[in-house]
Design goal:
The structure holds two protein chains of two kinds. Chain A is mostly helical. Chain A is 77% helix and 0% strand. Chain A has a single domain (22-124), classed as 3 helical TM bundles of succinate and fumarate reductases (Up-down Bundle), CATH 1.20.1300. In chain A, helix 2 (21-46) packs across helix 4 and helix 4 runs antiparallel to helix 5. In chain B, helix 1 packs antiparallel against helix 2 (56-66), helix 1 (22-54) crosses helix 3 and helix 1 (22-54) runs parallel beside helix 4 (103-130). The termini of chain B are far apart. The chains are: A mainly alpha, B mainly alpha.
């Protein structure tokens, strides 16, 4: 191990073990999405109807609100990884890539925040009369 | 110049240099359905959640749009994308553990993923309309 160039300083240290980080996150969020989206689809089928009252009363239950909040986080995280992968494959110009990934990050955080606030409003608000 | 195919040289005029196989179809379908779910599915999910949080009038607007003919076409297409992505995603998890790379079994797995997405879509909407 040298102490001159940047390459010299890291040579021989081995892997940082971060190379597969996004790959693993894609799998973790896929498993979470599978369970939570499955829950949402079965709920759609099992609810008596999808009227405002039925869905609000259903969503206000703590377990349902928790599952939906986790669904928003898992699905938006999984989506962000997928779109960033797409950008990595097709956008080759460094500046465009930076701008595209920044837009994806902002939209992901913004979209997920809106989803969580909406669920929170239903979960913590008064039940409709 | 000799008439040699150059990789990744895809077209000779409008003619493909290679034949489609199920594994190629399922691969590109996984990407297309995934991006479709992001750019069509997530806005609809947020519209639904936002409308529920905003009150009965907003939710009525959402329901009217969702249960229009265009709404049903979009939702059925979206559910197909979801179930196809789900099946091909499970296929990826199987491949991730190092299984199913034999040509015949890989081909079968690819076909099962594509057909499974369609079958699940049909079952889901039959359940929606019949129960």
């Amino acid at each position: 191990m040298g102490n001159g160039t940047e390459l010299g300083r890291v040579r021989g240290l081995g892997s940082a073990h971060h190379g597969a980080h996004d790959w693993r996150l894609m799998r973790y969020t896929s498993a979470a999405s599978l369970v939570l989206v499955g829950f949402l689809l079965f709920s759609f089928l099992l609810l008596p109807d999808l009227s405002y009252l039925s869905v609000r009363v259903w969503m206000a239950q703590p377990l349902v609100a928790t599952a939906l909040a986790l669904l928003v986080i898992a699905v938006f995280w999984h989506s962000r990884l997928g779109v960033v992968e797409l950008i990595g494959d097709y956008v080759h110009d460094g500046g465009n890539k930076f701008a595209a990934i920044m837009a994806v990050n902002l939209l992901t955080v913004g979209g997920a925040a809106f989803g969580l606030v909406s669920i929170g409003r239903v979960a913590f608000g008064a039940l409709p009369a | 110049m000799a008439e040699r195919p150059i990789s990744p040289h895809l077209f000779e005029g409008a003619r493909l240099h290679w034949r489609w196989g199920p594994h190629m179809v399922v691969s590109i379908l996984h990407r297309i359905t995934g991006q479709g779910l992001v750019f069509v599915g997530l806005p609809i999910l947020l519209w639904w959640l936002g409308a529920l949080a905003s009150g009965p009038e907003s939710y009525a607007v959402f329901l009217a749009a969702a249960t229009s003919i265009i709404g049903y076409i979009v939702l059925i297409g979206l559910s197909w994308a979801l179930f196809t992505h789900l099946c091909s995603g499970i296929r990826h998890l199987v491949l991730d553990i190092g299984a199913n790379y034999e040509i015949d079994r890989n081909k079968i797995g690819s076909i099962v993923s594509i057909v499974g997405g369609i079958v699940l879509t049909v079952i889901f909407w039959l359940a929606v309309f019949l129960f």
